[in-house]
Structure prediction request, 676 residues.
Amino acid sequence: MDQYIGKQSIKFTNPPSILGAGSIVGPKEGKGPLRDYFDQVLQDDLWGEDTWEKAETKLVKESMKLALKHANKTIEDIRYIFAGDLLNQLVATTFAIREFNTPFFGLYGACSTMGESIQLASMAISGGFADYTLAATSSHFCGAEKQFRFPLEYGSQRPLTATWTVTGSGAVVLGKQGQGPFVTAITTGKIVDLGITDPMNMGAAMAPAAADTLVQHFKDLGTSPDDYDLIITGDLGSIGNQLMKELVEKEGYYLHQGFTDCGIEIFDANTQDTHAGGSGCGCSAVTLTGYLLQEMKNDKYKSILFIPTGALLSTLSTQQGESIPGIAHAVVIQKYKG
Amino acid sequence: MDQYIGKQSIKFTNPPSILGAGSIVGPKEGKGPLRDYFDQVLQDDLWGEDTWEKAETKLVKESMKLALKHANKTIEDIRYIFAGDLLNQLVATTFAIREFNTPFFGLYGACSTMGESIQLASMAISGGFADYTLAATSSHFCGAEKQFRFPLEYGSQRPLTATWTVTGSGAVVLGKQGQGPFVTAITTGKIVDLGITDPMNMGAAMAPAAADTLVQHFKDLGTSPDDYDLIITGDLGSIGNQLMKELVEKEGYYLHQGFTDCGIEIFDANTQDTHAGGSGCGCSAVTLTGYLLQEMKNDKYKSILFIPTGALLSTLSTQQGESIPGIAHAVVIQKYKG
Prediction:
C-alpha cells in the first residue's frame, strides 16, 4: 500500500500518534517568552557535569525520560530511537542512550534533526515496523560555540545576522495507537544551496531550503497556507524568516500572520541580546515539545506545519571556501486524524 | 501489516531488490586482494581535487552515479537518499549530493553506516514509501587520519591493534521490484559499551556490539550460522574478529569457516602493512558493492549476513576520558527471495 504522494511527501495511511513529549532548556531559554511551557529549566549550563558536552548528554537522556514518562511508557516499549545532535559524531546522543539497550538509528540533519527524526520515527510506525518509537535531538550553546565558532573566553562580538544556539533537548514518543495529536503527513527536504558563504548568517543560507520544502509540500498535498493554523520553521531567525516569506510569495503562496519561526519565538531579541534569534537542533525541538504541543492541547492550534531547518556546513567546509547548503523537513501535526 | 520479528529484527514482507551497485577505491585498496572486483581504482588519493575532503565528496558522487548506471536508473527515479560518512557534519555526503535535487536523510552510524543506510532504505521501500532508494557511504584514509588521529606529516607509528581507514565509497540502488539479490531481513543494533578506551584498538571496542547484534539476529529469526553461506562483519579486523568469535561462541553459536570481516578481506595485512586490517565506512561498503555482490552473481554465495560495525567515539569524547561505544547493524542479502 503506497503512502507517498507527489514528489517528496507522504500522507500516512495510519498516522502515528504523539503519546508524550519532553522538553528541558538552559537558563537563558528559561528567561525567554516560552519559559512557562518547558518541563524543566536548568539553573546553570553545566547541570552538575564537568563539561558542556556531558551536560548536553544529560539533557538528551533526561528529555527522553520525560517523554517516556508523559507517554506512560518505559524504554523497553520503544522499538527504535531516531536521534542525533550537532556535536561531531553525535556524541551527546550516543552517550545519552548507551545504557538504554534500544535499537538506534543515528541521524544528522544539523538543526533540521527534529524534523528528520520525527519523519523516520513516523515512517517506522506507519510502515508496520514498530509500535512505539522515540525521536529526539539537542544542542548546547557553549558546546556549539566551542566546536563551530570561537572559544567563549574570547568574548567575540557577534554580527546582527547571527543567531544564538539554544541549550535544550526535546523528545517525543510516537505510537501506533493513541488519542493524538497525530503526525498526518511529511515532506522530506532536499539539499538547496544558493551560494551563501557567511556562517554568521545561517538564516539566509537555510531560507531557500525552507521555501523549497514548503512550496513542494503545498504542491504535493494540494494544500495552501490557509489549511494550517500555524506554519513554523526551525531556526531561520528574523532575517531568514523574511527572506523565506519573499521566496514563497514569489511562488504564489501568501504567508499570513500564522507564519513564524521557532528561533523568533524562543527568545525576546530586544531584551535578550540574541540578535537574529535562536538556532540549533534544540531550538525547534523544545519549541515543539514545550510550546506547540501544549498549545495544541489548549486548542489554540489544531493543525501545525512544523519545518525544522538545517545548515549542512562544517568548520572545514567553510575553511575550504565552500558555501552553506541548507535542508528543511516538514511535518504536519494535527490534533485530530483528519 | 507488521513486519517486525523478535526484539530487534524485521523480516520484509516485500523484500527490496538490489538493482545496482557502485564501488570506487583508492590506490592502496586497488593493490589489495579484492582489486579486481571494484568498478574503479584511483591512481592517487586526491583524484584531481585540491583537498582530501573534496576527493571524498567526488568518491561519493561518482559511486552513486555508478550504482544508478548499473541499476539502469537516473537520479530522478530515486525518492530518497540515505547516506552519511565519517567527516564532521557529513560534509563528504552533503556536498556530493547537493546538485542531485533528491530528498535526503543524513545518517551517522560511524563505520556501520552502510548497514544503517541499507536498513532504512529497505524499510522505506517495504513500508510503501518509495519505489527506489539509494544507500551509500564513504571514507578517506587521509581525511580520517587528519580528523581523528594525527596529521599524516607526523608519520606517527601505529600500534599493531590499529586498523587502516579504507579510501572508498560504495552505493546501492534498491527497488520495489527486481531480480535480486534481495534484502530479506535486518537486525538493528543497539549501543554496547564494555569500557574499552583505546582508540587505537577499535576492533576490540566494536566486537561486543557485533556479537550482540549477531546473537540477537539468530534469536529473532530462529536461524543459526549454518543458514548463511557467509557471515561478514564490517571492520573489526583480525583482533576484533577473534574476540567476536569468542563472545558469540559463549552464547552457544559456533562460527564456522564462512565467517570473516571486510577489514580482513580488503587488505593483505602481511604485505600491505595495515596491521589489524581495514576500517572506515568505506571498508564494508566497497567490500559489499564490489566483492560480495559480484560473488553472489557468480553463485559463490546465495545467502550473506552482512554486519557493518561502528565505533561511536569522537576525539572530544576520548579527550574527556570516555570509553568507546560500539554499534552493529545486520542485513541479510539473499540471491533468491526465500
